[in-house]
Specification:
Blueprint lengths: L1 H41 L24 H7 L6 H7 L5 H13 L16 H6 L4 E4 L5 E7 L3 E2 L5 E9 L9 E7 L3 E7 L1 E2 L6 E5 L1 H6 L3 E9 L5 E8 L1
Parallel strand pairs: 3-10
Antiparallel strand pairs: 1-2, 2-4, 4-8, 5-6, 5-9, 7-8, 9-10
Length: 238
C-alpha cells in the first residue's frame, strides 16, 4: 500500500517542476527584451528617428538628380551647345560642332560674319582705289591711283596715272601732280614719269619727304595736257 502511495506522490512533484520550467521559459524572453527596449528608447541617437509610431510615417528621401532629369526640371532652357557639352561620350561630329562654336564666338556677339569678301571692312579700309574721269566726248579718260592708302611718316608712296582712248590704252602725255595737305596747303608740284612697258606714269614721294610732312589727309590733283583731263586721289600719313 505504501508503494502505491509513493507512486502516486511522484507525479505532482514532476508536474510542479515542469510547470516552473515552462513558466520561466515563457517569462524569460519578455524579461530579456524589456531592458533592451528600454535601453534603446533612452539612448536613441540624435540623427536617427526614435522608435515610435511616428516613425511609421513615410519620409522623403533626397536622391541625386541625373543630367537628363535636371534638363527636364530646369527652369532656364539649355542651349544646344550646352547639351552637347553635357554628353560624356561625344562623337567626332559633337567635337567638330564645339570647335566651330568656340572659333566663331571668340569675338563679341555684336560681330557678324562678312557675307562677301569685297565687303570686308579691313579690305575696304586699306585697299587702294582707282578713280577714272572721262572727257566730254567720252573718247579719252584719265585714271589715277596710289600704291598705298595709309602710310606712316618716313614711308614712301607712289602716285600713278594713265591716259586711255577708245582706240588705245596708255597714251603718251604730259602729266603733273600737285599734292595738298588738308585740301588747303600745297606742298608738292611735280611731273609724273612714264613707264615704257604699259604707258603708265608715276611719281614716287620719298621717305625723306614724308618724314617731314605732318600727319593728316593728303590729296593729289593729277592733270593731263590731253583734253584737260584731271583726277584726284587721297592718302593718309600717320
Amino acid at each position: 500500500m505504501q508503494r502505491n502511495i509513493v507512486l502516486l506522490s511522484i507525479p505532482p512533484l514532476i508536474a510542479l517542476a515542469m510547470l516552473a520550467y515552462f513558466d520561466h521559459a515563457q517569462q524569460s524572453p519578455d524579461l530579456d527584451n524589456k531592458p533592451q527596449k528600454a535601453h534603446t528608447e533612452q539612448h536613441t541617437p540624435i540623427n536617427q528617428p526614435a522608435t515610435s509610431q511616428a516613425a511609421k510615417v513615410p519620409t522623403l528621401t533626397l536622391k541625386p538628380v541625373t543630367g537628363s532629369q535636371q534638363d527636364q526640371i530646369s527652369v532656364t532652357p539649355i542651349s544646344g551647345i550646352e547639351q552637347i557639352r553635357a554628353i560624356k561620350n561625344k562623337t567626332a561630329l559633337h567635337q567638330a560642332v564645339l570647335k566651330d562654336h568656340a572659333s566663331f564666338t571668340r569675338y563679341p556677339s555684336s560681330n557678324v560674319r562678312v557675307d562677301r569678301l569685297e565687303r570686308d571692312p579691313v579690305t575696304m579700309t586699306y585697299e587702294t582705289h582707282q578713280r577714272t574721269t572721262e572727257s566730254e566726248d567720252m573718247r579719252t579718260s584719265i585714271t589715277a591711283w596710289t600704291d598705298k592708302k595709309y602710310i606712316n611718316q618716313g614711308q614712301a608712296l607712289t602716285l600713278f596715272s594713265r591716259i586711255d582712248s577708245v582706240e588705245l590704252q596708255g597714251l603718251s602725255s604730259k602729266i603733273m601732280a600737285q599734292v595738298y595737305f588738308s585740301e588747303q596747303q600745297s606742298i608738292l608740284i611735280e611731273n609724273l614719269q612714264a613707264r615704257q612697258q604699259d604707258g603708265t606714269y608715276y611719281l614716287t614721294i620719298s621717305e625723306e619727304q614724308t618724314s617731314l610732312w605732318p600727319s593728316g589727309i593728303y590729296k593729289a590733283i593729277i592733270v593731263s595736257d590731253i583734253d584737260q583731263l584731271s583726277e584726284s586721289v587721297s592718302f593718309v600719313i600717320s
